Amino acid sequence: MPVLPILTYPDPILRLKCEEAVPGTDDVCRLAEDMVETMYAAPGIGLAAPQVGRNIRMLVIDITGPVGAPEPHVLLNPVIQEKSESTSFEEGCLSVPELNVEIDRARKIRVRYQDLDGRWNDLSAEDLFAVAVQHEMDHLEGRLILDYASPVRRDLYRRKIRKQRAQGV
Ligand code: NI
After folding, report:
1. How many domains does the chain have?
2. Does residue 91 carry a catalytic annotation?
3. At 122, which CATH number?
């Protein structure tokens, strides 16, 4: 299972609205395995398909961290069914390095999604797990944490990245 390169801002693939994932295909199953591997290697607690260059509605999450036993979740075509009151959390993103943004998200959610065999499941998530699902679902719409930052911070970040690229960093 290869570790895939993670695209970073301003790669245009990160801005696409993703297409429906087709469960059960070899391609999607292999991609899910590679995404889990890539997430652990990063290390991160979640990864969405566009971050590895694939424009499909699939994400992987494992919030257990390096100490616990791995508990990877693979969600295809997730849809939020219910949201609770909101909470705010400082989020980072593997595709938007060196930026943390405080974002309001629902503290509890119920999500309907397909597994790799195409079965529909319901998942209830709260706190970090809920935040991670909502963060990864943003990627499927082409939305990044940068979009939640103030205009000034957005502009500073854009300039910093442009400068780093010009310097070949
Ligand atoms: Ni992200």
Report:
1. 1
2. no
3. 3.90.45.10
